[in-house]
Specification:
CATH topology of the largest domain: Immunoglobulin-like
Radius of gyration: 30 Å
Order of helices and strands: EEHHEHEHEEEEEEEHEEEEEEEEE
Distance between the termini: 57 Å
Strand content: 25-35%
CATH class of the largest domain: Mainly Beta
CATH superfamily of the largest domain: G protein-activated inward rectifier potassium channel 1
Largest sheet: 5 strands, mixed
Number of helices: 5
Length: about 325
């Protein structure tokens, strides 16, 4: 019986297990190497370096008198001669003596030239690859803002240069039952209070208004749990130092959405009149009192306090 192959793929906090999928494809070697951690990449380079020298050391030992002044049968001499040849560094003690020795040395120098170019390119790409240092709040909150319930998350730029032209997205994922009775996962972009800025220097709160046009309108915390609600937020902008687009995302399960709570204020002014931002309090939230606001043709607006509440609905 053929054993099924499992490949685990993580997207935020969610992990997929791919069945009967190839774990490795030679056509993806370049991509695979770039996705290695730095310790893994260093181990890979060191392993390839040792392998090349071991192979050429064995080739030098196959030819009698291939290398002058090399002790007969000495693998260590052959190995270190290979190291010197691969780096094109000769110390004058050992040198190719026969035609076979010159041929193998020439081949190793060519391999060394190509290998050095490839490794240099990989290291350069790993160092120069643009990355975004964005911190998303650990939780999302649902609370009234300007008299209307909003779904809110907090986003922080951890770099000390402003990101320019940032674009924000918030995606709703939930389980629904189709007309045929099948349970499917549905995706819908949530309309944001703003989805594009000129610059993003520090910390801001991204908000989705929960009104009649929102897919979250009228839902309770129990609905969030039953439909396995998940919110994914992303930001794409331009790093002004390397002038390259960068991207980052965060996601929130239904149990990471706090009802009737809001983020604490982290902006303030010091004695000199300068605006300050307290990065240590990015994830801090605080309770607020439920609001009752009459609306024409509707019941009083009510924010559901927690999953154990009386089942009041968002925005209704």
């Amino acid at each position: 019986m053929k054993r099924s192959r499992h490949v685990r793929v993580r997207a935020g906090q969610f992990e997929f297990v791919k069945l009967n999928a190839k774990r490795f494809d030679w056509r993806d070697t370049y991509h695979t190497i770039l996705t290695l951690s730095w310790p893994g990449f260093a181990g890979f380079v060191f392993g390839i370096y040792l392998l090349i020298n071991v192979v050429f050391a064995a080739l030098y030992m196959l030819g009698p008198h291939a290398v002058a002044e090399m002790a007969p049968g000495s693998f260590s001499d052959a190995f270190f001669f290979s190291v010197e040849t691969l780096a094109t560094v000769g110390y004058g003690h050992m040198y190719p003596e026969s035609f076979y020795g010159h041929l193998i040395a020439t081949l190793e120098i060519i391999v060394g030239m190509f290998g050095l170019a490839v490794i240099t390119g990989l290291i350069f790409v790993r160092f120069s690859r643009p990355t975004a240092r964005i911190q998303f709040s650990k939780v999302a909150v649902i609370a009234p803002y300007d008299g209307v319930p909003h779904l809110m998350i907090r986003v922080a730029n951890l770099r000390h240069q402003a990101m320019v032209e940032p674009e924000f997205r918030m995606l709703l994922m939930r389980n629904v039952i189709t007309a045929e009775g099948d349970e499917v996962r549905r995706f819908r972009l949530l309309k944001l209070e703003f989805d594009h800025l000129v610059a993003f220097p520090a910390v801001l709160t991204v908000r989705h208004r929960i009104d009649e046009e929102s897919p979250l309108f009228g839902m309770t915390s129990k609905d969030f749990q039953q439909q396995d609600i998940r919110i994914m937020a992303s930001i794409v902008g331009v790093d002004t130092v390397i002038v390259a687009p960068v991207q980052s995302f965060g996601d929130y399960n239904y149990d990471q959405i706090e009802w009737n709570r809001r983020f604490v204020e982290i902006y303030d002014q010091n004695e000199e009149g300068e605006w300050t931002v307290d990065y240590a309090r990015i994830d801090e939230i605080e309770d607020i009192a439920p609001i009752q606001k009459p609306a024409k043709g509707q019941e009083a607006q009510m924010i559901d306090r927690n999953p154990a509440s009386d089942g009041s609905k968002v925005g209704v």
